[in-house]
Amino acid sequence: MKARVHVMLKDGVLDPQGEAVRHALGSLGFDGVGGVRQGKVIELDLADGTSEKTVREMCDKLLANTVIERYDIELA
Question: In which element (H, E) is residue 44 found?
Answer without folding.
Answer: strand 40-45
